[in-house]
């Protein structure tokens, strides 16, 4: 293997650590939060670009450290992953993850002090989850959900005062991700029906919560309804299957559907706050994420 081929081989391995399809879903969080803030009516998109760069670093860094902390476990259960397979080093992955997290916080600081604080909280929560939270059956899902809820609020933080009005929006991805994280524990060896039922109930609560946003004067629930229906179709069926037959295959299918459908969840929020065209813009990220999910692992 010549030097150029070897470098390409190593680059691909580190790119796999980032799980690009998942990063696209993080972009959708930011764009949805941006819609809720009301800033989307401005012609200046520079803050949005900074926040997209910030979430790329925060999510990418957090997911790289997930593999760093799981290196020994993956050596037994998922030896094909970049670190246990030897295609990426644990030290190199740590340096990449750390650089991404620092870069994410720095990018957020270009928008507002509150954005920087939220970014720092997300980075800390991601590391906490990677190192400890994922091993706790209750705290783990909540911990991971907090990362995604914070990411949505990071988009809202482009208008700092809007956080006080819409802080509760962060609860929606917290519950949604908690459901996916709880279910994902059975991806390798299978899970329990009770866990699947809890996850299904949490997903249903998210659907009800999205409908409940119609009580807000600036949220058009009828505009959001088609996207909410699409979300229900894509997520409820695989979650019902995973709850009734909690095999590794059914669980992986449900988790994959849940992760990719984060974009539809964000589309529902964006359409309600900013209108149909804006919602369709967010939804356009879904095909890109799905294509990348065929190339790179999602979980």
TrEMBL record:
Coarse class of the protein's main subcellular location: membrane
Transmembrane is among the record's keywords: yes
Annotated membrane topology: Multi-pass membrane protein
Record's keyword annotation contains Membrane: yes
InterPro entries attached to this UniProt entry: Prenyltransferase_related, UbiA_prenyltransferase, UbiA_sf
Source organism superkingdom: Bacteria
Annotated compartments: Membrane
The entry's keywords: Membrane, Transmembrane, Transmembrane helix
Transmembrane region(s): 21-42, 48-69, 139-160, 166-184, 196-216, 222-241, 253-274, 280-298
Protein name: UbiA-like protein EboC
The organism of origin for this protein: Anabaena azotica FACHB-119
């Amino acid at each position: 293997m010549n030097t150029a081929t070897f470098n390409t081989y190593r680059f691909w391995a580190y790119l796999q650590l980032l799980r690009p399809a998942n990063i696209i879903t993080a972009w959708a969080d930011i764009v949805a939060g941006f819609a809720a803030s009301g800033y989307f009516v401005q012609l200046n998109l520079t803050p949005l670009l900074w926040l997209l760069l910030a979430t790329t670093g925060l999510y990418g860094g957090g997911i790289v450290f997930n593999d760093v902390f799981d290196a020994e476990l993956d050596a037994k259960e998922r030896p094909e992953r970049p670190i246990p397979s030897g295609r990426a080093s644990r030290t190199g992955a740590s340096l990449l993850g750390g650089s991404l997290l620092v870069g994410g916080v720095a990018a957020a600081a270009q928008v507002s002090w509150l954005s920087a604080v939220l970014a720092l909280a997300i980075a800390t929560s991601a590391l906490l989850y990677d190192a400890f939270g994922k091993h706790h059956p209750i705290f783990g899902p909540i911990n991971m959900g907090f990362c995604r809820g914070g990411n949505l609020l990071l988009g809202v933080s482009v208008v700092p005062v809007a956080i006080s009005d819409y802080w509760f929006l962060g609860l929606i991805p917290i519950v949604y991700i908690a459901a996916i994280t709880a279910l994902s524990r059975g991806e390798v060896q299978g899970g329990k029906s009770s866990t699947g039922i809890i996850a299904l109930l949490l997903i249903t609560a998210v659907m009800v919560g999205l409908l409940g946003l119609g009580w807000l004067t600036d949220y058009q629930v009828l505009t959001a309804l088609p996207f909410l229906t699409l979300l229900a179709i894509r997520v409820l069926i695989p979650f019902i299957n995973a709850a009734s037959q909690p095999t590794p295959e059914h669980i992986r299918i449900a988790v994959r559907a849940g992760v990719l459908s984060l974009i539809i969840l964000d589309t529902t929020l964006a359409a309600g706050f900013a209108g149909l065209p804006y919602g369709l813009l967010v939804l356009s990220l879904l095909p890109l994420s799905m294509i990348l999910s065929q190339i790179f692992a999602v979980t």
